[in-house]
Amino acid sequence: MRKRACVFFSGGKDSTYALHRAYDEGYEISCIASVKPRREDSYMFHYPLVELTKLQVEAMGFNDRHKIIEVSGEKEKEILELYNSIRVIKDDIEFDTLVIGGISSRYQQKRFKVIAEKLEAHLFNPQWNMDQERYLYHLLEYGIVFIISQITSYGLPEFLLGIPVDRSLVKKIVEYSKRYGFNPSFEGGEAETFVLKAPLYKHDICLRGNVVKIKEFEYHFGVVEAYLCNNYTVERAL
After folding, report:
1. 10 Å Cβ neighbour count for 40?
2. Assigned CATH topology for domain 3-124
């Protein structure tokens, strides 16, 4: 029996891992939906660098099934907007499963479950309730290379932005999380990530950008240039 999935994909580490796990489990990737909120403070959706999901999907060879869905970013209203858009997509593209990359957010899990039920689809959430410290190391072992693209929490220093995360950086993140009390996998929105390389990527992604301070304890990596390449690099101006 064919299993067809529509993957919610933000370009960050969690949705990338969820997409890969669905592929590993034998799902046909019928649809990749990237949600672009018009507000930066969306309750549900990743905001930074969503426009670059087009490049990531191209790197995986899935350009023909990528949809960008715009929502208001207003609490609860954005859920209805998303449901309406996905319902329209389902009229044209056949899928029986929605794939998400949630780890511990019951707020998101509950709302995606409602959307799936309304669409008469299953919900596949492969990293749900995983130990978050071990999960970060597992991402590296699995072959996912990512940077921190935005910081919105006290305790995360800005020098972490734009640096490909390796085991030594994961160790620092975990140490900071224990010291300052934030979620080490950023499930509470403490930071956002962007993936440069993953097992399904036929090309890597190279970035050039700079660190931008928004306000105290809040920074983002301002991308000036992004392109497909053979070996990922990040040029980071201070």
Report:
1. 12
2. Rossmann fold (3.40.50)
